[in-house]
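Readers of this paper often ask what the protein records in our data store actually look like. Below, we set out a record of this kind in full and without editing:
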Amino acid sequence: MAQTLARYSKVLEIVGDILKVRVPPSANERTRVAFDDLALVEDPGGFTSLARAIKLDRDMVSLQVFAGTKGLSTEASVRFLGHPMRVTYSSNILGRVFRGDGGPLDNGPDLSQDPKIPIGGPSVNPVRRLLASKMIRTDVPMIDIFNSLVESQKIPIFSVAGEPYNQLLARIGIQADADIVVFGGLGLIFDDYHFFLRRFEDAGVFARTVMFVNLASDPVVERLLVPDMALAVAEKFAVEEGKRVLVLLTDMTAYADAMKEVGIAMEAVPSNRGYMGDLYSQLARRYEKAADYTDGGSLTILAVTTMPGDDVTHPVPDNTGYITEGQFYLHNGELDPFGSLSRLKQHVIGKVTREDHGQIMNTMIRFYSSARDAEQKQAMAFDLSDFDLQLLKFGQLFRKRFMNIEISLPLEKALDLCWQTLAECFEPETLLMKEALIDKYFPKLDADLSNMAA
């Protein structure tokens, strides 16, 4: 088909990964260039790459060249393919790894004959969405107990460079009770890509996983396509096959930086700290794909957002916080109970979980907050009361048993461990909880504590 397409060879400018070409207006709708259309860029020197139309200005079309413009000259020609970027979608993509341009990164079977779907479409009509009411169990106590992850939720992991956020993301992908996991890697170094691949394979969940990976050495342009491809595939699995799909993205700050780089090449007027003025809209367009469908499954998005300088007012985490429904704050290798928040947890805690969940959550956080105050008193050499000493013991047990991201516990066992921890540190009358719950769940004998510990 490509041989019959019109060829345009009037290259006006090459800036960064952006190629600008003159395309005369066409009265024929079939040959008219549209925003987001794919094109084939060819150079007499042997350079060949796909490109995407990102700006139409009268007879000038700006193209993002997937392979970059190194080796490209003004003698190049462009042929438009007449359709936007598409990604392969079928059951055959499960257990496969794809590049940022949609091509296979692994050595699996050829998928060229499998159906393809367009990417970057609009979000699902709100009428087709259900109110969030189902919990996704992750077996991570700091999430399941204190900030439950809910189906159809969009929530980031706020962290800084050097923190083990990829380890946490991989653990959630492996342990979450989802039917399908779609992973999108944005600007990953090879070690991180290999880490995710090995973790999914070793845990035996790779057969239900699809990976779209843009490496740090790959073209920046492809980084902008990965979230759209991952979300397009996830949406199809959720809507057409009724699957409960979990989308994992890392790192959305790298995605925003790629948008900034392209915007600068396009000579767009920057906004806050050099980012483009449509940063909020571009992020929201992706995050709003999260939904629980009335006649299908669900799509949940968990994305890493690194904060340069641990600055939550940085444009990327700042805009992300307005779009998403809370955040998990990973700090010093632990999930911080005070910085983390799930705005949808009230839809599942005590409704689809055990009756004591809500009271345990509030009591544990209340005592841990008091334990932090007691630690400050101790550091300042103030006299400590017996209750302060109990709080100090509780604080140590809380961090050891719950805040470590390596801990894996089913929700019910984690709730039982909360009761055990409270019993080891406090008397029942100091808990300020419903008496019926204390009578039912509070360990009353040393034997009870021994059995629970075992």
